[in-house]
Specification:
The chain has 337 residues and is an alpha/beta fold. It is built from 13 helices and 13 strands. The chain is globular and about 65 Å long.
């Protein structure tokens, strides 16, 4: 059996969770990998058969998407050509972690396809949504990656169709301790803006991992570090808490490690707004932006020892086996006269 696994490379979360899922799948079937987008720092530890541009957004520096660059660098005609060129017809199944080229190519070629992502969970009626929902954002989530079967990844097991976030082996091997520093990962803010706000808290040590930094440096109580997976994992293992975006990957890993957590969702980004809403329901402090008016919330968070009590179980093998068993069942039903 041959599987084509599509990975969205906007941010690092899709990549990090795909690594262990692909390794788990390869215990049972042959897996080729396709990636699209190019805004991640984590490197895949295996060969990528197809590299596409796809459709993706670019991080801004003031809390939101860089709209102009996103419009400029996405080419609908190129995207349509990629859909035609990717040979999904040579595969028995396509799995897409919010990767649109494989998803639409599978639909075009009548190949059985699976959506495996946090975004797939947002299609589930049992997952709480914010009161204010952008119809355009919801339309994108509903149609960005069509699939025959959806496996939603979520913080809680609200029903049998939802699964806990895949936990990387490297995360499971960490031995977390509560150190003296806080890890900060806010890729859609400029380093200068982050520094301006964090330096207000003079007695707190901050370790900022920045997409916009090219070298390490310190400024008072804030140390800035370019994105480096090994250094990030070490900092995460030994930190007192994590302040980050509401991306699914980092928040899930922080919860798994039982770290104190505060999130700032990207403005007008539907997935992050939904994640932040649900994290708030689980007791995680949420602020809408990095502004002075929220300094009191930050101060209270720093002073508190309260951690969200969210249990995230390792379901990697169970999820992979379910996906394969569902494919077999679908194939049998398809051939019933």
């Amino acid at each position: 059996m041959k599987v084509l696994y599509g990975i969205q490379c906007t941010g690092n979360g899709h990549i990090t969770r795909s690594i262990d899922m692909i390794n788990e799948l390869r215990k049972y079937v042959h897996v080729d990998v396709l990636t699209s987008g190019s805004h991640s720092e984590v490197k895949l530890p295996f060969d990528v058969k197809f590299k596409q541009k796809g459709l993706s957004y670019f991080f801004g520096k003031n809390g939101s998407i860089d709209v102009l660059r996103t419009i400029r660098d996405n080419n609908p005609l190129r995207f349509l050509q990629e859909i035609k060129e990717v040979p999904t017809h040579l595969y028995d199944m396509v799995i897409s972690d919010f990767e649109p080229v494989t998803a639409w190519s599978a639909k075009r070629n009548w190949v059985y396809s699976v959506a495996l992502s946090n975004q797939a969970a947002l299609l589930d009626a049992d997952v709480p949504k914010p009161n204010i929902i952008s119809p355009i954002s919801q339309l994108i989530i509903n149609n960005f990656c069509p699939a025959n079967k959806h496996y939603g990844l979520f913080y809680q097991k609200l029903n049998s169709k939802l699964y806990y976030p895949p936990v990387r082996d490297v995360i499971k091997k960490l031995k977390p301790t509560d150190g003296s520093h806080y890890v900060v990962y806010l890729p859609f803010y400029s380093t200068e803006k982050i520094l301006k706000h964090l330096q207000t808290f003079e007695n707190t040590q901050w370790l900022v991992f920045s997409k916009h930094a090219t070298q390490s440096y310190s400024n008072g109580n804030v140390h800035v570090q370019p994105i480096d997976e090994h250094k990030f994992l070490l900092a995460l293992e030994n930190c007192k808490g994590v302040m980050c975006s509401a991306g699914f990957g980092t928040t899930s890993e922080a919860l798994f490690l039982r770290k104190k957590l505060l999130v700032i969702p990207m403005k007008s980004q539907y997935e992050q707004q939904c994640n932040a809403h649900n994290l708030g329901l689980l007791g995680v402090p949420v602020i809408s932006s990095l502004k002075k008016k929220f300094h009191s919330v930050l101060a209270d968070w720093i002073a508190s020892d309260e951690k969200p009590m969210v249990e995230i179980k390792d379901e990697n093998n169970k999820l992979v086996r379910t996906i394969l068993e569902d494919y077999v069942a679908n194939d049998i039903l398809k051939n019933v006269p």
